[in-house]
Specification:
Layout lengths: L8 E3 L2 E3 L1 H12 L6 H13 L5 E5 L9 E5 H15 L6 E4 L6 H13 L2 E4 L14 E6 L1 H9 L3 H6 L1 E6 L6 H7 L5 E8 L4 E7 L9 E3 L4 E4 L4 E5 L7 E12 L2 E7 L4 E3 L2 E3 L1 H8 L7 E8 L3 E9 L5 H14 L8 E5 L12 H12 L1
Parallel strand pairs: 1-6, 5-6, 5-7, 7-8, 8-9, 19-20
Antiparallel strand pairs: 1-2, 3-4, 9-10, 10-11, 11-15, 12-13, 13-14, 14-15, 16-17, 18-19
Length: 367
């Protein structure tokens, strides 16, 4: 891997030095009609090439309430180099930016392009960004929703396979989607990370001859668990040397773990701790609409499991068929005690289902 110059960027087919980037940012940010996603990109490029030694990031809430943190640029550069080594990225490789730059995953695609000397191409970070991209690219990062929608297009798999190495993060990957990914002929990985760790710290291969079951640490990172069985990530370049997460895991060894779910999503039903993400993975093929597993207060169980579905109620016969299928698929304590229908689930700005927001809504509306 040959590192690039952290102040030189090849953007959408044109090379810019530091002065050229300064002029470009001024011109673009002075446009009255600049789309928000482009403004985010140029604001970040302007901040990156400035003389400041740090940048401000906004956390997504993985380790607590969302907040702004200031981190050294050197830490982001180190993260970019670690990713480059693992994925075999090199100078003049092409990278596709199809994620919002307001979040760490989008920012790090820009940083990798600077640090590794990659050629960066940009498209609007829509639900299916590949509809605006017809070429081949060496490297791209997407969220599960984007991959899901790409598969639903007539040329979905072909478009995804034009990405040499695809990394997927920012949310849970359903069993059904994982099954489709397994047949892709490129290199596709699920990643684990957060703003506080400067994007991914562990990866898991999803296709090829030996798909993984455990996340594997990238170079320099080690893992342990706390008394809650939540993951602790350690590395010399992290603030304070380590980050304590709210993610419950099964730790295989200091370099491998299996993700179970967020501890703040755990449902305590009759003294049994239930991870909604695991139930959702089991029943995803049975439900033909957006849904999530949530809970409502229960006098006997403390919390009862409920299935919240987007859209109009199912007809009586179809609903009973779904209930019977759920009973066959799930353990007794996992079976939803109630089916709830709402017009639309709550979503975050990044397109993920807002669990707390949806749960608050159903508790206000269905108790």
């Amino acid at each position: 891997m040959s590192p690039g110059n952290p102040y030189i960027l090849n953007l959408n087919g044109k090379g810019y030095d530091r002065c050229g980037l300064e002029d470009l940012c001024i011109r673009q940010l002075n446009r009255a009609d600049i789309p928000p996603h482009e403004a985010e990109l140029y604001f970040f490029i302007r901040d990156w090439i400035s003389d400041d030694l740090s940048v401000t990031l906004e956390t997504s809430g993985s380790t607590g309430p969302p907040r702004k943190i200031t981190v050294p640029k050197e830490s982001l550069m180190t993260s970019a180099m670690i990713s480059g080594l693992y994925f075999g990225l090199k100078r003049d490789d092409s990278a596709l930016l199809c994620l919002p730059v307001r979040f760490i995953a989008g920012k790090m695609m820009v940083v990798r392009s600077f640090v590794l000397g990659m050629r960066l191409f940009t498209v609007e970070p829509s639900g299916n960004p590949l509809s605006d991209w017809n070429g081949a690219v060496d490297f791209a990062a997407m969220i599960p929703l984007q991959v899901h929608r790409a598969f639903n297009e007539s040329m979905g798999a072909d478009h995804l396979e034009r990405i040499g190495t695809l990394i997927i993060g920012g949310g849970e990957i359903s069993a059904q989607l994982a099954g489709k990914i397994r047949h892709l002929k490129n290199k596709t990985y699920q990643t684990y990370g957060m703003t506080e760790t400067f994007t991914h710290v562990a990866v898991m291969r999803m296709n090829g001859p030996a798909p993984g079951n455990f996340f594997s640490a990238l170079e320099g990172f080690t893992f342990e668990v706390d008394h809650r069985e939540c993951l602790i990530v350690s590395a010399h370049n992290l603030p304070g040397g380590r980050v304590v997460t709210n993610d419950r895991v099964i730790l295989q060894d200091p370099h491998h773990f299996r993700f179970l779910g967020r501890i703040d999503h755990v449902i305590n039903s009759g003294g049994i701790k239930i991870h909604p993400e695991q139930i959702e993975s089991k029943i995803e093929p049975l439900v033909d609409r957006a849904f999530l597993i949530s809970s409502l207060p229960d006098d006997r169980l403390n919390e009862q499991v409920v299935l919240v579905m987007e859209g109009k109620p199912l007809e009586t016969l179809k609903e009973q068929t779904l209930i019977n299928l759920l009973k066959k698929k799930l353990h007794t304590y996992e079976i939803p005690r109630r089916l709830i229908y709402i017009d639309r689930l709550k979503y975050t700005f990044s397109g993920k289902i807002d669990r707390p927001g949806t749960q608050n809504f159903i508790r206000e509306s269905f108790l």
